[in-house]
TrEMBL record:
It holds the Pfam family SpoVAD. It comes from the Bacteria. Gene3D superfamilies: Stage V sporulation protein AD (3.40.47.40). InterPro entries: SpoVAD, SpoVAD_sf, Thiolase-like. This is Stage V sporulation protein AD. The gene is spoVAD.
């Protein structure tokens, strides 16, 4: 078997796993942003008909997973593993939300980088021959995140300029082996334009000593810069080898820090860089520095980025979800907020023919 390790911290897949299904479920504020038309389903009730914010987030995850599986013509019994996580303590949105799927599950935590982590692990499972089909997903909810990490909504605190707004949403993808896709999915009308996961660069925990939990961009930007530079070095590429380099939720503050760090390393990515947190909301939506949360990069991936790749408007993208590794305990004990980011290389692949009548 060919060695898959590339450079110091990357993996290149021999037979790249295919993303054959994807779904995004968002809240009303996300629908009102500039990408509202790209999302699959909008839940306008922030409680999603449930009794608590946490149960609402569970519902978002369940819907995203079920929709992604249904969209590629599969059933729950066809999925070997789920790889999922969220921001809540002990991953309760994933564990309670996905319990009824009755699918073996790996619970993962990478803070807001969790979509990158779940995509990476799911892809390794598929490429390694351990599973033919894997669902990777994550979620976040503004109210459940505020309740756990910051202030109760009724407190009505003012938000500083560097703060970000946690996205209410969930994104899910179905990963399939190329062999399985040819064998089982060929000819289905809803599996026509495929995106493949070409490789992964696993990030390191990077800590610049920032202790401001209201400035997540400054906490995460060094980790994002580290993993982007590692990806370019490991794969011997230049920034222009990617149509877009896309971070998860650095926001306006983190964006400039990222660009400055990479420029100091000799990389200028400004002409092909976008941040999901900056993009997902309009400037007049009172979100300060931008959007954040696990759901931010997840719904932008499943709602917008994959469509650009499917239409072959982009051929190759470096998707870099970003996370801040804090908890209420660590913050209250005066710890700094380390950052983490994971890079996933997404490429447009050949189209599949439509089902003949």
């Amino acid at each position: 078997m060919a060695k898959k390790e590339i450079g110091k911290q990357s993996v290149e897949f021999d037979c790249p796993p295919l993303i054959v299904g994807a779904a995004s479920v968002v809240g009303e504020k996300e629908e009102q942003g500039p990408y509202g038309e790209y999302f699959d389903h909008v839940i306008r009730d922030p409680m999603a008909g449930q009794d608590t914010w946490e149960e609402a987030e569970e519902r978002f995850q369940q819907m995203a997973a079920e929709m992604a599986i249904e969209k590629c013509g599969l059933e729950k019994k066809d999925i070997r593993y789920v790889v999922a996580g969220d921001l809540l303590g002990q991953l309760i949105a994933s564990s309670f939300g996905l319990m009824n799927l009755d699918i073996p599950i790996f619970g993962v935590y990478g803070a807001c980088s969790t979509m990158g982590e779940s995509l990476a692990i799911g892809s390794m499972l598929v490429d390694g021959g351990f599973a033919d089909r894997v669902v990777a997903l994550t979620s976040s909810h503004f109210a459940s995140a505020e309740k756990q990490f910051r202030f109760p909504l009724g407190y009505g605190n003012q938000r500083p300029k560097a703060a970000t707004w946690t996205v209410t949403g969930s994104g899910a993808v179905v990963l399939s082996s190329q062999f399985d896709t040819k064998k089982k999915l060929e000819g289905k009308t809803n599996v026509q334009k495929i995106v493949q996961v070409r490789g992964v660069t696993t990030g390191k925990i990077v800590d610049y000593g920032v202790k401001d939990s209201m400035n997540m961009g400054a906490c995460m930007a060094p980790a994002a810069a580290d993993v982007i530079a590692a990806n370019l070095e490991d794969f011997q590429r230049k920034p222009e080898d990617y149509d877009q380099i896309i971070t998860g939720d650095l926001g306006q503050v983190g964006r400039q820090i990222l660009l400055d760090i990479l420029e100091a390393k000799g990389y200028d990515i400004a002409s092909r860089y976008m941040d999901c947190g900056i993009e997902i909301y309009r400037g007049d939506q009172n979100v300060q520095s931008g959007g954040s949360g696990c759901g931010c990069s997840a719904v932008m991936l499943t709602g917008y980025i994959l469509q650009k790749l499917q239409k072959q408007e982009w051929k190759r993208v470096l998707f870099v979800p970003t996370g801040a590794l804090l908890s209420p305990v660590s913050f209250n004990e005066g710890k700094s907020v380390p950052g983490i980011a994971h890079g996933v290389i997404l490429e447009s692949a050949e189209e599949r023919s439509e089902k003949k009548s």
